[in-house]
Amino acid sequence: MAATEAFTLVFVGAGAVLFLAGTLGLLRFPDTLSRLHALSKADNLGLGLVVVGLLPQCESVTGALKLVCVWLLAQLSAATASQLIAGAVYRRKPGP
Amino acid sequence: MSLLLDLALVAWLLALALYVTSARGDRDAIVAFIAFGLLLGLGWTRIAALDVALTEAAIGGGVTGMLLLRAEAHLRKRKPGGPSKGVVGKAVTAVACVMVTVGLMLVVLAFPSPAPTLAPAAAAALPATGLGNPVTAVLLAYRALDTLLEKVVLILALIGVWSLAPDGLWGGAPRLRPALVPEPLAYLAQMLPPFGVLIAVYMCWVGADAPGGTFQAGTVLAAMWLLVMLAGLSPEPETRGKALRLTLIAGPALFVAIGFLGFAMAGGFLSYPESIAKPLIVGIEAALTLSIAATLGLLVAGPAQMASGR
Amino acid sequence: MVAAVAEILTGVALFILAVTALGLFRVLRAEFAVERMMAVQLLGTGGAAAILLLGAASGTGAMSDVALLLVLFAAFSCSAFALGQASPNVDGSERPEDGA
Fold this sequence. Notes:
The complex is a heterotrimer of chains A (96), B (310) and C (100).
Chain A: H1 3-28, H2 32-54, H3 61-92
Helix pairs in contact in A: 1-2, 2-3
Chain B: H1 2-22, H2 26-46, H3 50-78, H4 87-109, H5 119-124, H6 126-129, H7 134-142, H8 144-162, H9 183-206, H10 214-230, H11 242-265, H12 277-301
Helix pairs in contact in B: 1-2, 2-3, 3-10, 3-12, 7-8, 8-11, 8-12, 9-10, 10-12, 11-12
Chain C: H1 3-28, H2 33-36, H3 38-58, H4 63-86
């Protein structure tokens, strides 16, 4: 197996493990804010690792750029959306 | 592995659909419906219908969700008592839905085994249009009349929504901006639209040769516009505004004009001369994108809620 | 790409989708309405990862466009919903949200 393919499999596998970790956090964590934390942190890192893993498989530079764009967009939007959800949770239950 | 994935996807889609119909509150159902739209977008990619997948993600996972959320907020204000539909009403709705589903299933199962298809013909005529994406060719060349009427229907729907405004507020602006804008939202509304506009331009441009096109691009633009208005960064437009109304009809008007030009230049309504077919189609697409964005944005924004300052 | 690698990528996509679906049903059964909105966030990220993997496995470059829109509209829907939750906006009279 070529080195690029080994690289892809390692990173994609690590990404899958992080998705699993995110879901475990979602299932096990006791309160809303920590569940939100598990979701936004782990899943985004997982997506990032998947993107890194898939980069060597791209046929063109623009294709690779588009993959990176997907991840950057996910970073921006997921982080902000999580803040919005957390803000709504916080206002609903005064006090942590 | 692919078969397993497809089976799992179908199972999750069915489970989510059942959840949507059985959810306790309207809001739960809407949230699950948005999630369903995103998952269905993934489903369309599995049968290689990328154009539909893009539309589903944009409409089902985005704009429709917001439309429903706003409608729900509006209804909640009217009827604080919660859902009041009786058992009979629910049963009748359920039976009607099941009948539609069963009917569709029977139709699908009744197809002859190699289903009748016009795909080879569509692909064969592709060079005449100068396009590379057969879906765009169907939408803007082979069946251009359908697309034109669709856009007109969108505008009719918008007129229907506008006419819900009370007499005193006619011509005024809808209200999207909440009393208090959370800070992250203002940040998102500043950061996301540049990305979104770029994606919309890309979608519109790439639609000629690859999956994408006017409707997806217009929906992305509409979502970005809504986001900016939600965060209060740009005021909601007055529905009486001349520029706004011109934007709404510019796309369909250009479409009709080029359609009539077809009589003179290519011997029929909505037929393009072969040499400039592609520039004409791309031009129509660009104008339609703006009109669709304005129409969808205003559909979600709803009827006027603030009197117009004339 | 080697066929075996494509097969493995499809398998990973299936795994990520399965894990996402698990989280999805947990979140949808959550106590607070706001928390249920995480379902959309979850599907945006997990769905995008799965689509990118499937796109690479099948060699379809345009699949990443779908992932792009998925992420974009997940964020859009989330903010629209969080906003309706956060403030007594359009209606001016927010009913105490369902805790049950």
